[in-house]
Amino acid sequence: MTPEDFDIVIVGGGPVGLALACALTSKSASSSTHNSALRVALVEAADLSSVRNWNPEREGDGTFFSNRVSSITNASRRFIQDIGAWQYVDESRTRPIEEMQVWDGISDSRIEFLAPPTSAASVPVHEMARLTENLNLQRGLLRRLDEVCGRGSTLTILDKTKVASIVSDVDGSSSSLPSSPSSSTASASFTGWPLLHLSTSQMIRARLLIGADGPNSPVRAYSQISSYGWSYNARAIVATLRHGQSGFTSFGTPRNHTTAYQRFLPTGPIAFLPLSPKCASLVWSTTPELAQALLDAGDEVLARMINAAFRLPDVSMRYLHRFILERWTRATPTAVNTGRQADPKLARKQGFVSVEEIEKEIQWRERAHSIHPESALSSTLTPSTDPAHEARNEANVILSSEATLYPPLVHAVQPGSAASFPLRMSHADNYLGARTTLAGDAAHTVHPLAGQGLNLGLSDAASLASTILESASLGMDVGSPLALKRYLEERYLANHGMLSSTDKLWKLYGTAMGPVVWARSVGLEVTNEWTGLKDAFMHFAGGSNDGAYMQRMTNKNEVKLSQRDYPGISLPGVEILAAALEGISGVMDGARTLISATTKQNKGRTQIENSTLRSTSTSASTGTGASSLGNTGTHA
Question: Helices 314-330 and 288-297, interaxial angle, to 10°?
Fold first, then answer.
């Protein structure tokens, strides 16, 4: 069987793969140059028609949201707008982030981020990011691809198709590709091109194979590109939350519902991300055991624990965690009925704790901390005889001047939305192989605490598409390492800086050691007052002034580049930030070592003292020691 040849084959139909295909084909279709000869194929195992025809459920006056939500930075949004896909995204199902409240779960040190003004006409003023469901973004990208294909694009979408195997073609003497400037000659040898055997018995051959196929990438395995990283021994709970719509503050002004909240607990950060005036998305990183226990406890218990996690002091949260874990450990698993028969593999420990028990424990802890029922720190939803308290529950009114420092009280968890997934950090040693390259999660995975996973992937797609189109316009072989060198230079260190910084933040806030808590709290307070440094963090995370790739996508003949895809902070700035966090992590590790050594030394002294006391006790029993020492030794 003769394989069908393509210039570009993209494996993976997620947001990154679709955005890359969209960037390549939309730019080629709008160009009158030879770039239009590039043939692109996208291979996806799932049925993309379900994404293309996605129609969110609605029930009563409450909108159902998917639990797979991403924060799209201004830079990522401009890229999506530039390739013509944002017009197909349902903006009524997106929510701007104009403010962020982030605080330490132990010391309560806080930092506030406000969206800086921007001069970009394509992005509204005072918006640092925009939350949207992944399905909403994927559907918009697919609709844009359908529009481009309707204009005679050379894109082929092969969905419901799995990659059975990938081999290097050893006999590539003929090609179905038409002669084009992107190939050196029509009679060139095609030996060594990646040859894909698909589940549909079809074979396709790629001048350049791009892996956008997730962390367990078959393309990376074929390329023999190793990666390094580690598991965080943690899981992230995701869910769609429902809360009151009005949410007035004590000043009578309504909440803006455009503020994101994140609290760093020793077990992991918990984030509240607004989706609408009545709904929000949860991302709660915690231990695998506690994550499973909270899911098994049920939606009502989970809602109470979420409210408490944003408000109760750490000592009380640790008690509640122990309370739930002890109950969960002793509970007996019951198989879940899947419709036909009970499946032992899906056994869960349900009903091991009641809502009333959790509410009683939380109320007792609040009284112990002298938290007034009308305080912003109160998470009580139980109706009382006080009419004002009843009104507070119904309208979600927090009668406190500090109301906006904490998220609205969660009333319920959207049924079926609570789930969890494991967390890990990984980074490929290289993005380029033999006529292959990696993008998105196939190249790197990051902890979700900064919300940068998808944004890194979209920046990869923007840079890679720009690099490929520019190389093709210069008549280069788009599968050669030289043609892809700029992509590697632009993205590898930028991604490494974000991965390293996020990893250090996780480690920095994952300890309750006194010296470390003091150091990070002081640093957080200083950063909050240092506007310039805080703005640098904002530019680093969001690329607020990222216009470099826009210029390159518009003018593909410009070869020389001086900015990265995160130009708001220069590459040396990325290195300085990563080095600073590395230094903090080193100090933290040194403190651990010092405390461990001190503990061992004190333990040795205690053993010597106990041995001396036992010797004294023996002497006293024979009448040779003083009675006081003898009594002390006997008591010890």
Answer: 70
